Amino acid sequence: AQKVTQAQTEISVVEKEDVTLDCVYETRDTTYYLFWYKQPPSGELVFLIRRNSFDEQNEISGRYSWNFQKSTSSFNFTITASQVVDSAVYFCALSDFTGGFKTIFGAGTRLFVKA
Amino acid sequence: NAGVTQTPKFQVLKTGQSMTLQCAQDMNHNSMYWYRQDPGMGLRLIYYSASEGTTDKGEVPNGYNVSRLNKREFSLRLESAAPSQTSVYFCASSEGRPSGAFFGQGTRLTVV
């Protein structure tokens, strides 16, 4: 069965701190995809990244980086030198072969970045 | 660049009323989705359409119906609204599963 767990409900940091958002997933498939989305206070959902199960290379995009570890079924997201504009709810999501590649989401982590 | 457009943005219904949420995308995507977002529960998939002419149930389909009218449009219908359907509804589209999805602005629905 598919499952995505984001154990951190809320995180509060001060600007310029680094912060890591955790994501643990469950799937029986060897072929699956992982995603991160951002939902700022305005409410829209913004796609950040997709990762497939065959590519464990870490990815960096500016201040954002993602660490994919199949051994621990985790796909963590780190924001370096956080900024107030990073304040948002961040969702991790999973899409796998058995689930017909339907995407299911974790409950989200609300990040507050204080000036 | 419209992307995914949902209408309406806000709606208040009385219990038992019906309504249709409209969604259209202009990115020529094959797949479209309807999600609902409730506090502390992330987004839950209601229905999806992998391609024009097909629809399938998601995690929480009860109380809803959908129509994939053509490649661009995917509507969600509540036949008899219930207070438990008070939520924010998002439509999304993607090139195909499991591509990253692009979301509409959301519809905040309140059923009283």
Report on the architecture of this protein.
The complex is a heterodimer of chains A (115) and B (112). Chain A has 115 residues and is an all-beta fold. Chain A contains no helices and twelve strands. In chain A, strands 2, 5, 6, 10, 11 and 12 form a six-stranded mixed beta sheet that branches. Chain A has a four-stranded antiparallel beta sheet with strand order 3-9-8-7, with no helix packed on it. The model of chain A has no long low-confidence stretch (mean pLDDT 92). With 112 residues, chain B is mainly beta. Chain B is built from no helices and eleven strands. Chain B has strands at 4-7, 10-13, 19-25, 31-37, 43-49, 56-57, 64-68, 74-78, 87-94, 102-103, 107-111. In chain B, strands 2, 4, 5, 6, 9, 10 and 11 form a seven-stranded mixed beta sheet that branches. In chain B, a hairpin with a 5-residue loop joins strand 7 and strand 8 (74-78). Chain B is globular. The A-B interface holds A 4, 6, 9, 32-33, 35, 37, 43-47, 49-50, 91, 95, 100-108 and B 33, 35, 40-45, 48, 50, 56, 58-59, 88, 90, 92, 97-103, 105-106.
Provide a brief overview of the structure.
The complex is a heterodimer of chains A (115) and B (112). Chain A is mostly beta strands and 115 residues long.
Contiguous helical run count of chain A: 0
Please outline the major beta sheet of chain B.
Answer: 7 strands, mixed
Which spans of chain A have pLDDT < 50 for at least 5 consecutive residues?
A: none
Ends apart, CA distance between termini of chain B: 35 Å
Largest interface (C-beta under 8 Å): A-B, 25 and 25 residues
List the secondary-structure elements of chain A in sequence, H or E.
EEEEEEEEEEEE
Order of SSEs of chain B, N→C?
EEEEEEEEEEE
Question: Which properties best describe this structure?
Answer:
heterodimer; A: 115 residues; mainly beta; 6-stranded mixed beta sheet; 4-stranded antiparallel beta sheet; B: 112 residues; 7-stranded mixed beta sheet
